[in-house]
Design a protein that fits this description.
- It comes from Pseudovibrio axinellae.
- This protein is an alpha+beta fold.
- The chain has one domain.
- It has a three-stranded antiparallel sheet with strand order 1-2-3, with no helix packed on it.
- Helix 1 crosses helix 3.
- The longest helix is centred in the last third of the chain and has 17 residues.
- The radius of gyration is 13 Å and the shape is globular.
């Protein structure tokens, strides 16, 4: 996985397909998407589809999606 930014505590890197479990609480929480451009996903299936889309646009060079991870 390509690392874009590293600090002593965090790493910034592209979204990966296996990030779904970590993203589910964020994607499924109504308060998370209330004031953002994230789609309001109500099921794990829709959240999974959104994550796959994020990965695909990044890989195609049509956008970017980042994950902040603990170092």
């Amino acid at each position: 996985m390509k690392q874009l930014l590293n600090t002593s505590r965090l790493r910034l890197s592209p979204v990966q397909p296996d990030d779904l479990q970590g993203c589910l609480p964020i994607f499924l929480a109504p308060k998370t998407t209330e004031y953002s451009n994230l789609p309001r996903t109500k099921t794990e299936k829709r959240a999974s589809g959104f994550l796959r889309w994020m990965v695909r646009i990044s890989e195609q060079g049509n956008g970017f999606s980042w994950m902040i991870r603990e170092a």
